[in-house]
């Protein structure tokens, strides 16, 4: 069925025709793809096309679409019942797996999305410190939490305002945003506001201004100064968690945050989020403490089953992360020989920027040629290649992808 017709129909019933803005393809032109099903590395569309998928639902599908072990786990869980409103043993099993992979996490709470996890972690940090201000980095997107839609990345990067309309000025004034990979500016602002800042929230490897590789010195400056001033350091590893390795970016770069945000892969493709950290922080939450957070579907048994199946598979196949990184690294080297456009790559993630200058922060990402990106994107679509349909996003590979698949991106 024609995608333009499907999109026209969708706009009659859904706000903007989509349930998440970037899906509307505004950055690249044309009607969005409408998926029918997925299998392995392929997305099958309503118009009959089979697309080689490097979006992978924006990251969670490290095992590819419809992996047999994940499907079997979901089917078994659904057969037993979709939701109970009381705890299940599987929730504890998933939490234990995550905590074993992330030693900085002593206690965990499951929620339904990364946005919800961020909102809850910030509330804990404010309750624990008694402070109100937050510090983030330009171009880092932490979900659509009001206070963090300030110089945010992802789809927000393409809005005409620095923040979303509808965010109260009073909330925006409580958030400081600094350039990523800029330890001098970070140090100056911490010196100025350290007594008022409850938390620094950071994507250790940003994936929402396109992929930006961190300077380890910047990351360690952030950790040193937050420790010195009693500021809660929250690492948003929704994208990087179980992507850069079994222990995420914090293991790779030797960081020990106070709190961690997870999502995407820990749900195996189903809606999930989690936040966790030091016991004394997590004990601020009700029913133990007086910071309130709740959710009817938190720890949903079907999402938990998908997450358990995915993490157990990764635990059994530790070479997965090395193999995927080798695949992406080899492609990045080929891209640099083939094209003047900048490519950033780490782990199983990569981004192509339509500029010939290095991209180390949000300002660099914004300086790319957006029209050229849209033109290249249409060439990819013509080759039946599906990349994330926006210039400020990150592409992914799964265990199903091959070097030959990545060759399809080498357009002239």
How would you portray this structure in words?
It is a single chain. The chain has 412 residues and is of the alpha/beta class. The chain has two domains: 155 residues, Aspartate Aminotransferase, domain 1 (Alpha-Beta Complex), CATH 3.90.1150.10; 248 residues, Aspartate Aminotransferase, domain 2, CATH 3.40.640. Helix content is 36%, strand content 15%. The strands form three sheets. A seven-stranded mixed β-sheet has the order 4-10-9-8-7-5-6, sandwiched between helices. Strands 1-2-3-13 form a four-stranded mixed β-sheet. Strands 11-12-14 form a three-stranded antiparallel β-sheet, with helices on one face. Helix 5 links the parallel strand 5 and strand 6. Helix 2 packs antiparallel against helix 10, helix 3 packs parallel to helix 10 and helix 6 runs parallel beside helix 7.
Task: Outline the secondary-structure elements.
Elements: H1 3-11, E1 35-39, E2 42-45, E3 50-53, H2 68-80, H3 89-101, E4 107-111, H4 114-129, E5 133-137, H5 169-172, E6 175-178, H6 183-193, E7 197-202, H7 216-228, E8 232-236, H8 248-253, E9 259-263, E10 273-277, H9 279-282, H10 301-316, H11 320-338, E11 342-346, E12 349-353, H12 362-366, H13 370-382, E13 385-386, E14 395-396, H14 403-407
Parallel strand pairs: 3-13, 5-6, 5-7, 7-8, 8-9
Antiparallel strand pairs: 1-2, 2-3, 4-10, 9-10, 11-12, 12-14
Helix pairs in contact: 2-10, 3-10, 6-7
């Amino acid at each position: 069925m024609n995608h333009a017709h499907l999109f026209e129909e969708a706009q009659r019933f859904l706000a903007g025709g989509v349930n998440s803005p970037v899906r509307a393809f505004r950055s690249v032109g044309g009607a969005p793809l409408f998926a029918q099903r997925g299998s392995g590395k392929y997305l099958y569309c309503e118009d009959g096309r089979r697309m080689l998928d490097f979006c992978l639902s924006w990251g969670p599908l490290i095992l590819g679409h419809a992996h047999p072990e994940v499907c079997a786990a979901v089917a078994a869980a659904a057969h037993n019942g979709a939701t109970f409103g009381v705890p299940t043993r599987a929730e504890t099993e998933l939490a234990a797996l995550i905590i074993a992979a992330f030693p900085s996490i002593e206690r965990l709470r499951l929620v339904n999305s990364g946005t919800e996890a961020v909102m809850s972690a910030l509330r804990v940090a404010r309750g624990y410190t008694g402070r109100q201000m937050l510090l983030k980095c330009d171009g880092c997107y932490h979900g659509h939490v009001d206070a963090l839609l300030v110089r945010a990345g992802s789809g927000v990067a393409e809005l005409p305002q620095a923040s979303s309309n509808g965010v109260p000025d009073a909330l925006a004034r409580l958030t400081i945003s600094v350039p990523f990979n800029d330890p001098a500016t970070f140090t100056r602002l911490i010196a100025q506001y350290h007594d008022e800042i409850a938390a620094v929230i950071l994507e250790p490897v940003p994936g929402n201004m396109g992929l930006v590789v961190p300077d380890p010195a910047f990351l360690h400056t952030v950790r040193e100064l937050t420790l010195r001033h009693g500021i809660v350091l929250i690492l948003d590893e929704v994208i990087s968690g179980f992507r850069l390795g079994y222990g995420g970016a914090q293991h790779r770069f030797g960081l020990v945050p106070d709190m961690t945000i997870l999502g995407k892969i820990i749900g195996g493709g189903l809606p999930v989020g989690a936040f966790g950290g030091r016991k004394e922080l997590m004990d601020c939450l009700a029913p133990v403490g007086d910071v309130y957070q709740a959710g009817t579907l938190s720890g949903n048994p079907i999402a938990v089953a998908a997450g358990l199946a995915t993490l157990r598979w990764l635990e059994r196949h530790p070479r997965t992360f090395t193999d995927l990184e080798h695949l992406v690294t080899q492609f990045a080297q080929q891209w640099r020989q083939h094209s003047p456009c900048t490519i950033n790559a780490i782990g199983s993630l990569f981004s192509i920027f339509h500029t010939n200058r290095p991209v180390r922060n949000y300002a660099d990402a914004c300086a790319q040629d957006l029209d050229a990106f849209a033109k290249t994107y249409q060439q990819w679509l013509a080759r039946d290649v599906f990349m994330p349909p926006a210039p400020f996003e990150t592409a992914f590979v799964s265990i199903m992808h091959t070097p030959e698949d990545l060759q399809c991106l080498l357009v002239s």
